[in-house]
């Protein structure tokens, strides 16, 4: 009986314990700016790196990303993937106190979701967990200190990959990446663009990223750096050293960044010193450098004059996509007839060309490539994926800049895969990339057993 009473008492007091939990954290320039700035609402962008401010003690929670939200009701920290909310409740000279506001119990269904505030209510859209990507819109109810769900006309699965939030216009635009739904076996292959009308609580499908921008998403090894620029009615997205754009979802306009000072903030920096905590306010981008021990908050002005308008629309409507599909099918039918006639002649030519290539071009692996292949095979034999850092060390580029590391990795892997195809007359990659489970922005590397066996037949350590 005593055990039953204790369990009931614990269940009743658990929400109180959760809500009363308080952490004191150092008052950095960034946190102090958000806490004391007179503007009631500041739209913060998706973090460029994993950020941890609260000293969470639970082993399964302490490595979760922590995101800030600022609205008229105060400054909040939301623990990614959990639903936990902490509010700044007091301060002293060097610290700010954050006290837990929720009584959330279930976690794990909303990792990498889009957190935002609308009309001073905290919202959470989409996320990853429980074998699927969801498109649920949830709001935090202060009356019950829990999250509740808002009914939408349609659920469009989404993560915080790329979005544009315009609270003054009650609109949130988001890009859904291709994904496989393990729950329904549905599979998408396009980058779908949706407008969420927050007044009507209605998802409106706008279309798809056109091929140019979809290819940039595919080729970008990590998740692109994005900064929500509400003052410019768009989102600034950094794909790589040559491709940075302001995407205006409302008017379907793309502008290419051409101000070198802003470009250099995120690229061409020694030691990979990429800014963190970047956000825009009153036509200025605020940011910090992780190597700056003073934690000072810097800023740089930004305006539409820093961009050049592109002569294309980046959102391709469904009607446009269907028209292109019909044209492509008709063209394919025409080509099939002529292609069949040329098939036999081309095969003879291709066989002869392949023989010439194999004899005239050196398709043997050099020593550096062999060392990397053997390292990958050793790891793969024990079912261990090779991280980007291990790959950099094997190639001897750990101390190079991020740009040189990425270029060297990409060129080396492409060269090995190309030689593998020629040498073994096989149409598949030798080295495979697999997204990291702990952070989907990064890749790990592996050589499967079939490819490893083909290689071992010819090479010995």
What do you see in this structure?
This protein has 461 residues and is of the alpha+beta class. The protein folds into 2 domains: 18-316, Neuraminidase, CATH 2.120.10; 362-458, Winged helix-like DNA-binding domain superfamily/Winged helix DNA-binding domain (Arc Repressor Mutant, subunit A). Helices cover 31% and strands 29% of the residues. The chain has helices at residues 2-19, 29-36, 211-219, 260-266, 318-360, 367-381, 388-395, 402-424, 449-458, and strands spanning 22-26, 66-71, 74-79, 84-91, 95-100, 114-118, 121-129, 132-141, 146-150, 162-166, 171-176, 192-197, 202-209, 225-229, 234-238, 244-248, 253-257, 276-281, 284-288, 298-301, 307-309, 315-316, 432-435, 443-446. The protein has a 5-stranded antiparallel sheet with strand order 1-5-4-3-2, covered by helices on one side. A 5-stranded antiparallel sheet has the order 10-11-12-13-22. A 5-stranded antiparallel sheet has the order 14-15-16-17-21. A hairpin with a 5-residue loop joins β15 and β16 (244-248).
Give the arrangement of secondary structure elements:
Elements: H1 2-19, E1 22-26, H2 29-36, E2 66-71, E3 74-79, E4 84-91, E5 95-100, E6 114-118, E7 121-129, E8 132-141, E9 146-150, E10 162-166, E11 171-176, E12 192-197, E13 202-209, H3 211-219, E14 225-229, E15 234-238, E16 244-248, E17 253-257, H4 260-266, E18 276-281, E19 284-288, E20 298-301, E21 307-309, E22 315-316, H5 318-360, H6 367-381, H7 388-395, H8 402-424, E23 432-435, E24 443-446, H9 449-458
Antiparallel strand pairs: 1-5, 2-3, 3-4, 4-5, 6-7, 7-8, 8-9, 10-11, 11-12, 12-13, 13-22, 14-15, 15-16, 16-17, 17-21, 18-19, 19-20, 23-24
């Amino acid at each position: 009986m005593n055990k039953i009473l204790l369990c009931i008492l614990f269940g009743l007091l658990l929400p109180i314990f959760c809500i009363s939990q308080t952490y004191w954290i150092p008052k950095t320039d960034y946190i102090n700016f958000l806490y004391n700035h007179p503007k009631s609402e500041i739209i913060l962008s998706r973090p460029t790196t994993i950020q941890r401010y609260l000293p969470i003690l639970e082993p399964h929670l302490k490595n979760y990303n922590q995101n800030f939200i600022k609205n008229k009701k105060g400054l909040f920290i939301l623990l990614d993937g959990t639903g936990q909310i902490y509010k700044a409740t007091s301060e002293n000279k060097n610290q700010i106190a954050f006290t837990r506001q929720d009584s959330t119990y279930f976690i794990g269904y909303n990792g990498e979701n889009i957190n935002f505030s609308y009309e001073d209510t905290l919202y959470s859209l989409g996320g990853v967990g429980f074998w699927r990507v969801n498109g649920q819109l949830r709001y935090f109810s202060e009356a019950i200190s829990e999250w509740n769900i808002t009914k939408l006309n349609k659920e469009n699965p989404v993560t915080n990959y790329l979005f544009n939030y315009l609270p003054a216009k009650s609109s949130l635009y988001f890009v859904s990446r291709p994904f496989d739904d393990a729950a329904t076996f549905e599979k998408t292959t396009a980058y779908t663009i949706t407008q969420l009308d927050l007044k009507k609580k209605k998802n409106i499908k706008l279309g798809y990223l056109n091929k140019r921008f979809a290819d940039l998403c595919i080729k970008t090894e990590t998740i692109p750096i994005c900064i929500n620029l509400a003052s410019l009615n768009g989102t600034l997205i950094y794909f790589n050293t040559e491709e940075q754009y302001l995407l205006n979802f409302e008017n379907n306009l793309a502008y290419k960044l051409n101000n070198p000072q802003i470009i250099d903030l995120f690229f061409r920096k020694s030691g990979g010193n990429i800014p963190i905590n970047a956000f825009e306010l009153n036509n200025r981008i605020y940011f910090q450098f992780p190597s700056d021990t003073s934690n000072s908050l810097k800023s740089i002005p930004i305006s539409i004059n820093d961009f050049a308008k592109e002569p294309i629309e980046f959102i391709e409507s469904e009607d446009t996509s269907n028209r292109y599909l019909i044209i492509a099918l008709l063209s394919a039918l025409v080509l099939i007839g002529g292609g069949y006639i040329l098939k036999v002649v081309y095969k003879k030519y291709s066989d002869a060309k392949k023989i010439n290539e194999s004899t005239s071009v050196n398709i043997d692996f050099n020593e550096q490539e062999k060392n990397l292949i053997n390292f990958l095979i050793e790891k793969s034999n024990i079912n261990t994926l090779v991280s980007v850092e291990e790959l950099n060390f094997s190639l001897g580029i750990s101390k190079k800049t991020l740009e040189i590391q990425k270029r060297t990795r990409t060129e080396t892997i492409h060269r090995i895969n190309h030689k593998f195809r020629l040498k073994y007359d096989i149409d598949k990659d030798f080295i495979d990339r697999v997204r990291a489970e702990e952070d989907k922005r990064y890749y790990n590397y592996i050589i499967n057993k079939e490819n490893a066996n083909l290689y071992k037949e010819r090479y010995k350590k």
